Structure formats: structure tokens, C-alpha cells
Amino acid sequence: MSDRSDPEPPRHHGSRDKTRVPSPSVVASWTANAASVTADAQLIGGKAVGLFRLPQAWVPPFVVLTTRFAELFQAVQSVRGALTQIPADQLSLLDHFLKSVLPVS
């Protein structure tokens, strides 16, 4: 049995949660996303994980409403109410996507 000369770093219980970035409510395929987001089937679903693994040129632009969005919806029981609670940068992704796929009237 070997003796370690360097002590194990202290564990800070709970400190990680205070600085942790909250999970996004909206994820867009055309933006840079952290691998921890695009590989998290619990957050974005298995189908979206598969789509993110494909080359971007093979897949049309898409957005994912994550489980975080579903939690917001459950809390307020309204899509409109949930949309008012997501950050502006994520809301703009959804707005950009909808403008790109809806016909101009």
C-alpha cells in the first residue's frame, strides 16, 4: 500500500450548486452548445441527443424545449407563463427559429 504525499483536496459540499449555471430551457442546433447539454438525454431527450451527434449539414435547424422548460410549464400551467420566465437570450433563439420556419404574411 503506497502512502500519498499530497492530501486530497477539500470537498465543498453545496458550493458547486451555488455557482452552477442553470440548465437551459431552449437549445438551438445552430448555436454553440456545451457537450454536457447536447449529450444529456435527461435534459434534451434521446432524439435530440441523436440529432446533435449528426453533422450539422445533415440536419435542418431545430430547437429543443428542454425538461427545464417542462418544469416551468408545470409550475405555471401555461406556455405563455413559462415563456416569460426563460432568459431573453434563450427566448430570442425560439423567436429566430419561428421566424425562419413560419411563412411571411
Descriptive overview:
With 105 residues, the chain is mainly alpha-helical. The chain has one domain. 48% of the residues lie in helices and 6% in strands. It contains seven helices and two strands, in the order H-E-H-H-H-E-H-H-H. The chain is globular. The protein starts with 14 loop residues before the first helix and ends with a helix.
Topology diagram in text:
Blueprint: H1 15-19, E1 26-28, H2 35-38, H3 41-44, H4 46-53, E2 63-65, H5 67-76, H6 79-83, H7 88-101
Antiparallel strand pairs: 1-2
Report the β-strand fraction as a percent range. Answer: 5-15%
Count of the separate structural domains: 1
Alpha plus pi helix count: 7
How are the strands of the biggest sheet laid out side by side?
A: 1-2
Helix content: 40-55%
Reading the helices and strands in chain order gives HEHHHEHHH
Indicate the mean pLDDT.
85
Structural class: mainly alpha
Question: What is the makeup of the main sheet?
Answer: 2 strands, antiparallel
- What integer value in Å does the Rg equal? 19 Å
Total count of strands: 2
User: Which stretches of 5+ consecutive residues score pLDDT under 50?
Assistant: 1-17
- The 3D shape can be described as globular
State the end-to-end CA separation: 75 Å
